[in-house]
Amino acid sequence: MKSYKIHIFFSVLFFIFMALTVYLFYYFNKVEIYEPDICLPIDNQSAFVKASHPDIRYTGRFSFKDAEKVTFAQSGCMIEARFTGTSITFYLANYSFDPLTYTDNYFNVFIDSNEAIVLHTPNDSSYYKIKDLTDEPHHIRIFKRTEAACGPCIFGGFLLDEGDSLLELPKPLNRRIEFVGNSIIAGYGNEDSIKGNSFKPNTENNYMAIGAITARLLNAEYSAICYSGKGVYRNYDHTTKQTVPVLYDLVQPLPKIKWHFKNWTPHVVVINLGTNDFATGPPPQDEFVRAYYKFLIKIKNHYPKTTIICLDGPMLIDGWPNAVNTKSLVRLYIQYAVNLANNDGFSRIYNFSLSVNGKYGYGANWHPNVRQHQENARELSAFVKEVMGW
Predict the structure, then answer these.
(1) Pick among 2.60.40.1500, 3.90.190.20, 2.60.120.260, 3.30.420.40: CATH of 46-167
(2) What pTM was computed for the model?
């Protein structure tokens, strides 16, 4: 009996320790991530291409503080290049730190086509090789499927066969669209098919979420800033720290790296926030409207000419929770915030309502599945074309 009690005691201690670790990561940003020196295995049969090479393109939020260790974390961050040869190796170090939920990162790797190779990047791996390609020019795209909560990554360059090299990429797309939001923008559980399932990183595919799909329909460059469980005034757990307006200033939260807004200016910013604020009932109206209004002004101050589209998302339903007409209320509160911004002289801010989740089934934890994301992207892209003349 004594041994059994000791086992229970240490099990409880372990659980408390792990919970405290996750809490510190998410709210206090005190944990430092060790970054080892990058040393690709170069030999006489290979050619190393540094991460700073001008023929490598980065789309999304990246930090180039160390040009040879390019750091990123956000959903949808993409690295691309064209190259010659029959194989390509790349250095991609992963730093997932949540042992319970957001345990791993996953990527879609595309070679020439839109058929993805799904790549799992555990913490103990760094080098990934794609081989047996035809001996002709190829186009590689490395797209982050999972969200920032799954941990940051470092890209350290490519390794090509001897005599092969990178080629110039086509010009970047002229249109640019940014999506800001919560788990819906991230694509949380969109490849799951059972609504009662909990989150697993391998079922989150940002490439098949509303933002990335909308960008492809509009032929636009895509960037996303999204965090599951986060709100504009309060988060799902009712905390008011580390909300999306705070995290919006960062390349990544852990370790904290600030974003330089002059690096990339979107033509359109789409905001999907409110679902977590209202998840357990309406927040105080004044506080929510004020927080949303301040966020609109923050974006406009960074991008004065950018069009903003404010969504009420597909998980908001009238009559739930607690018999509250939540979708209508969120739409009303957002309109109040937009009106305040308009009264201050800020223009080109629109509201748009997405169709409600459920018609096509559900992903994990009642989230939209891929089919719902596709439908919402079709709706949204039509509206963007209308207001932008695209």
Answers:
(1) 2.60.120.260
(2) 0.89
